[in-house]
């Protein structure tokens, strides 16, 4: 299954097609603690961080709510295990407060590093208070711009 996202930049429309195999999370929800992405990416020993640039994008799909002052940290991790059970953090954001985590907000856009272990993925860490709502997507893409992502409802056809 492919997902299309439309990106707008200086009046031009750029369409990015995301293959399901390049997704770590697709509107993933969680409420507390450390949570691994729905999927990990198996590099099969290939160095996906060298050669042509490849980027990780993490975005908020559904606005975060909490009965307290919840924060979320987002980490790009590597592991020898597909379930990311012994993951090493390669990059992690600071704790981001719930007020910032609104639908459409792009939490992270980064070039992925070279020379990782076999599996890579994303870890979401909720702290301070539990979330009562919020969904996130994380995926790899080849082209990244300073554009805003439009969130379309499930089943929307472009």
Task: Give the SSE map.
Blueprint: E1 2-9, E2 12-19, E3 23-29, E4 33-36, E5 41-42, E6 55-66, E7 71-79, E8 88-92, E9 96-97, E10 106-111, E11 119-127, E12 131-141, E13 148-149
Question: TL;DR?
Answer:
This protein has 158 residues and is mainly β. It has strands at residues 2-9, 12-19, 23-29, 33-36, 41-42, 55-66, 71-79, 88-92, 96-97, 106-111, 119-127, 131-141, 148-149.
Report on the architecture of this protein.
With 158 residues, the chain is an all-beta fold. It has a single domain, classed as Jelly Rolls (Sandwich). Helices cover 0% and strands 54% of the residues. The protein is built from no helices and 13 strands. Strands 4, 5, 7, 8, 9 and 11 form a 6-stranded antiparallel β-sheet that branches. It has a 4-stranded antiparallel β-sheet with strand order 3-12-6-10, with no helix packed on it. It has a 3-stranded antiparallel β-sheet with strand order 2-1-13, with no helix packed on it. A hairpin with a 2-residue loop joins strand 1 and strand 2. It starts with a strand and ends in a 9-residue tail after the last strand. The N terminus is likely disordered.
């Amino acid at each position: 299954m492919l997902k299309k996202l439309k990106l707008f930049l200086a009046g031009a429309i750029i369409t990015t097609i995301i293959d399901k195999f390049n997704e770590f999370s697709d509107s993933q929800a969680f409420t507390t603690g450390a949570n691994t992405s729905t999927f990990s990416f198996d590099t099969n020993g290939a160095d996906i961080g060298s050669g042509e640039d490849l980027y990780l994008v993490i975005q908020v799909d559904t606005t975060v709510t909490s009965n307290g002052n919840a924060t979320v940290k987002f980490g790009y991790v590597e592991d020898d295990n597909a379930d990311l059970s012994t993951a090493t953090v390669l990059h992690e954001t600071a704790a981001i407060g719930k007020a910032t985590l609104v639908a459409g907000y792009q939490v992270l856009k980064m070039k992925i590093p070279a020379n990782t272990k076999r599996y890579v993925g994303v870890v979401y860490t909720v702290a301070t208070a539990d979330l009562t709502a919020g969904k996130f997507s994380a995926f790899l893409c080849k082209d990244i711009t300073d554009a805003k992502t439009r969130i379309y409802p499930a089943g929307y056809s472009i």
